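Batch manifest line 482
LIGAND: fe (ii) ion
JOB: complex structure
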Amino acid sequence: MNIVNVDYDGLIPNNVDLNHDARVKKALESWHPGYIDWWHDMGPEGFQQSLVYLRTAVSVDPKGWAKFDYVRMPEYKWGILLAPQHAERKIPFGAHKGEPAWQEVPGEYRAMLRRLIVIQGDTEPASVEQQRHLGKTAPSLYDMRNLFQVNVEEGRHLWAMVYLLQKYFGADGRDEAAALLQRRSGDPDTPRMLGAFNEQTPDWLSFFMFTYFTDRDGKMQLESLAQSGFDPLSRTCRFMLTEEAHHMFVGETGVGRIIERTCQAMKEAGIDDPADIGGVRKLGVIDLPTIQKKANLHFSLTLDLFGNEISTNAANAFHAGLKGRFREDRLKDDHQLESATYPVLRLVDGKVVNQDVPALSGLNMRLRDDYVVDCNVGVSRWNKIIDGYGIPFAIELPHVAFHRHIGEFSGIHADVDGNVLTDAQWTARRDQFLPSATDRDFIESLMQPQSEPGKFAGWIAPPKVGIDNKPGEFEYVKIVDA
Ligand SMILES: [Fe+2]
Ligand SMILES: [Fe+2]
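JOB STATUS: finished
ARTIFACT:
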């Protein structure tokens, strides 16, 4: 069978020759109804009958893998898509570096590998659950379509992880696959596994910040799993990354368009002072300091996803050859790190200090540092927009010690520059750093739906180009009342 093209004949589209793998095909077919039930219960609320102009993968060739068409979301072709196998691929790092990549699960690392797959898998449906109310307040049909595209692809990412569990982990893989449909974002009894995936996404600025900051954590995790010595995981993640790029595009351009509209409105009204929050809000746009506070919130929540500063799990997963560094294949060192060190920000005697630690123990922080660099690329593009209007303001990412719930800084309060604060100082200044109840109410007051083709809510600028090069007035979603 041609691995590049996807077989759409059966219930489950795939490029893994499911037709000749009766056991896995049967396992996935019996998981399918539960997935569809989950999608109806927890997927986008109120738009399940609407026709959405979605892209579907028809091949895994990076050039031209997508086909666009109107689809009802429950009929989306969720499938199993792996990037092509390279016959000679070797394990690129760790104790087994240079050995042929594993095509089956290495017995000694089975539990560790399963856990990595389950944690990644758990984030995928979680974000769909977090975003399920947003369709009702979409600022345009264009944005609504992008939300739904992200949602169906996160659903497909769940399929990707479930395939690995069903194919390679037998009975316990089946149990884990079932449990992925049972946990619920924010549920006090059966929450999703990671903190940021139990937070709410109450408005569209949150959605864009989430896709910018939190989907980017997803990108970093997928990049390091794409390096895995377990080849099926590597190939799965490589294809997921091509979808993930769109999620980050939605986040970056979404925030950028909000900033653009705010600056435009300020200029038209002759307001130059970004701190004139009352004046700016009267224009029906989101003031820049509030956008900064939202960035502080989502960035700090996402940093928690990288785990503890010093981590034996991360060291073990690297040593075992299961999870590499960001773009391991482009790094120039011994790829084993047994005697290397890495500088990590730590809390020592109540102070934030830089400390060299064994590189293997500091791998979470190395990935987090790469993440921060990646985040700053888009932030500087946002600042160029503000600059272009001559407004004296720049979005800045807060210090990594700010507003943390995991790791060494979870026990202290710090300001956005990393200065340690007393409890009283934090309470007094919290609303300078993070969205206050008033900020949230103001943003919520703007969340009025705009569902006329070609029209946009007043607080966000239109995109520069349409999806699939469609013209401005294109009807991205044909709304059918459920
Ligand atoms: Fe995903
Ligand atoms: Fe994503």
